[in-house]
Amino acid sequence: MIKWALRRWLGKFEREWNYDGSYMRDMIVRGRLHNQFFAPTELHSGWRLLIFVVIVAGLMVVKAAIIRMLPHFSNAAFTYLADKILKFATFLLASWIMARIEARRISDYGLPWRKALGRQFWLGAIAAFIGLAGFLATLRVAGLFHFGGIALHGAETWKWGTLYGFGFIVVALEEEFHYRGYGLYTLTKAIGFWPAAALSSAIFAYSHLDNPGENWLGVINAGAGGLLFCLLLRRSGNLWMPIGFHALWDWTQSYFYGIPDSGHTLPGHLFSGKFFGPMWLSGGTVGPEGSLLLTLLLVLFWFGVSACLPEVQYPNSASSGHLAKGSSDN
Question: 45, 275, 294, 308: which one has the fewest Cβ atoms less than 10 Å from its Cβ?
Fold first, then answer.
């Protein structure tokens, strides 16, 4: 019985390994096909990114349908904020689906909820407020800016300050997770962090071309700002510091000083700041983004962040397989 079973197994083995080597060729083809889709432990980054884009595209169709269903009496500010909230929900849901597929967490993509609005958020916010105040003070000394008088009083001050605070946190949360969330994480695995950061920042800058008051220097500075946000993510370990910086920068421009933000001047501002002199130097109607001096400020921010946060914290080596936590960022 044992010999019969052994002969049968050997006969099957011989049939599979034909003299023409067809079985071997089939296995080689299957192996090559497998390698086209899979890395040693998971799908290749390119395929995962493609799946993510397809999911986002489908959810964007749903988002657009919801926006069309909003009441016709809704004003532009409400519609804009609703669009930002739904867009953030779109990227969050798509990232959650990919996290389930990849056996990861949303925090691996830079958004740990337990750190929401915590210490890192406020450190970023303080840095933005001080940086913009210093920038405007420099322009004031040079005769390129005037702070103006106080435009709001009493309850109006708190009402507009709170509304803009909430609105710009939503804007910063959506834009940071949109441009520096799952996509940046996955591209990092494929091409490295800084090439991925450069690409995401270029896309971020390109999105500013839609702003009607923007100019070429403003677009360049938007891209440079995107790289600064990537550095903050890289050194702080998550998106909450860039979210805090982004939110307070917009809040300080639009509400506190009442100056243009990417060409937009909003109502309900505390001060009534005014720019004077050459636009390339002061920013003019574009706002600080349109000033060459802001480019210098972003460089100073870069050196400051590098000095204060010298160690690489993102992506976490446990989830990425790239630079280990605490290594240098050359």
Answer: 308
